[in-house]
Amino acid sequence: MASTTIIFSCFIFFLLCTSHAANHTQANFLNCFLEATGGSSSSPSKIYTPNTTSFSTLFRSSVQNLRFLSSGAETPSFIILPSVDHDSQAAVLCGRRHGIRLRVRSGGHDYEGLSYVSFSSTDGPFAVVDLSGLRSIEVNAADHTAWVGAGATLGEVYYNVAAASPTAGFPAGICPTVGVGGHISGGGIGSLQRKYGLAADNVVDVRLVNAEGELLTRETMGEDLFWAIRGGGAANFGIVVAYKLRLVPVPPKLTVFSVSRTLGQGATRLLHSWQSIAPRLADDLWIRALVIAIGEAPVNRTIQATFQGLFLGPRRATLAAIKKSFPELRVRAEDCNEVSWVESTLYFDGRALNNTRALLNRRPAFNSSFKAKSDFVREPISEKAWEGIWKVMMEGEEEPLEMIFEPWGGRLWEIEDDAIAFPHRKGNLYNIQYFMRWFETEAAVTARHLRWMRRLYDYMTPHVSSNPRAAYLNYKDIDLGISTEEGRTSYKEASAWGRRYFLHNFEKLAKVKARVDPENYFWNEQGIPPYTA
C-alpha cells in the first residue's frame, strides 16, 4: 500500500497545477481505481500519471507512428497497465462513475493513433488501458487451441505455438510486433488466409470487459456481440483481455520464395497476370506482390515489383505448382527456401531464419512516422492503367510510397460475408495497402508526405471498389472522416467511414452497439455509435 500512497500523493501535487474541475474528476477516478485494485496482493496493478517518472517512457513504448507525438493531439491523463482481468474491470467501473473515458492499446500499431491520443474538441481527461502486461499464452496442442492475452504480439504467439507443436500454426499477419488485440479485432490478414481464413475467423472464445464492467465470455455475452468483436473493432464494444484461438495444421516443411522484376524485366505484365491468377491458385499457395519506385526521381527512377510467396509443402512441389499455374513468374529452385512454419514468419519480416527467439522482441524494426490507406479491387486493372499508375508513382519527390497487394480467394471466398463482422469476401480479387514511411519530424514534411499519399489514392479511384469505396479497418484512415464531439457521433455521421470498413454489416454492428453500450462509453473519433433509425 506504500506505493499506492506515493502515487496518489504525487498526483495530488500534480492536480494543484491544473484546473479545479479536472482536479476533482481525475482525483476521484484515481482514488476509485486504487481502492478497487491496490488493496489486493493478487492484483498488483499500476496506474501512471503525467508526473510519474516513467509515464513518458511507458506512453512512448507502444507509439509506433511518431507523427502523433507532434500532431497537437491530446495525450492521456492516465495510463493503466493491467496485470489481471480485474484491473480492466476496475478501469471501466471507475471511468464510468467519474467521467473518464478509456482507450485500449495492445501493440500500439493503430495506424492513426486512436488507441492512445485524442483529436476530440470536447473530450475531457481520458485514460489509456495498455494491455501489454496481459500477454500470457497457454497452448493446448492436443486440443489445437490457445488462450492468448490481448497484449501479446503476433511474434509471441507464433513462437509459443511452434514451441508446443511444430505442426501447428495460426493464420495472422506477417509483422511480429503487432499486438494481438487490435489485429484480430479488425480481421487479421496474413500468409495463411487463403487456406484458413483470417485471424478473426479462427477465434472460438474471448474474455471481454463490457461497458458495465462485467467480465464476459462467448457463453455469457451473446452471439451478436461475439460476432461484432471479430472484425468489427473490439474496442467499440469493450476491452477484450484474452482470445481463445483455433490452431491450424501446417506441414513440417513449407517453402518461401521471393522474385523481383523491374519494368524492363516485365513487371507490368507480371502484375497484370498476377491479379487474375493469385486469387485462383490452389489454397496451399499464397503469392503477394509489393511495388515500389526505386532510383532517384525523376530520370533514373523505375518500378520494381517483388513477388513473395508461401507454399504449404516442400520446394519440389512448390516449383511444380508455380510452373502449372503461374509459369511466367519463372521461380527457380535457388529463389526458394524450405523452412518450418515459424521460420516463415521470420522470413517475411526480413529476419534471420535461425533465430526464432527474435519473435519475442516487441520492438519494431523502425521508429518513424508513416501514413497508410487501403483499397479492394474487384476487376483486373488493365496494363495501360498500370502504366499510368507507375507514372504517378515515379513522379513523386517524397520518400518511396509502397503498394502492397494481398491476394484473396480460397477460404476468404468460401466464408459468407456476414459470418463475422469483417465483410470483404467473395468478389474481391485482392487488397491494396498504400504505405509511406518518413523519419523527419517537421510538420511541413509530414504535410507534404500526406499530400503525396492522397494524390496517388485519388488517382486510383477508377480502378478500385466503389459505392462505397471499401477500406480495411486495420489500415485505419481518418481521411475517411472522423467525429470530434466526444460521445455524440450520430449513426449517419459514422456511416461515412462505417460503410467503407464494414459495408452492409455496419447497421448490424450499430445495433449491437445500441444493445451493449447504449451510452457510447467506448467512443472514439472513428467508432461505431449506437444505431438510430
Automatic annotation (TrEMBL):
Residues 1-21 form the signal peptide. The keyword Signal applies. It comes from the Eukaryota. Residues 71-250 form the FAD-binding PCMH-type domain. InterPro entries: BBE, FAD-bd_PCMH, Oxid_FAD_bind_N. Pfam families: BBE, FAD_binding_4. GO terms for molecular function: FAD binding; oxidoreductase activity. Keywords: FAD, Flavoprotein, Glycoprotein, Signal. The keyword Signal applies. PROSITE patterns: FAD_PCMH. PANTHER family: OS08G0158400 PROTEIN. Belongs to the oxygen-dependent FAD-linked oxidoreductase family. This is FAD-binding PCMH-type domain-containing protein. It comes from Zingiber officinale.
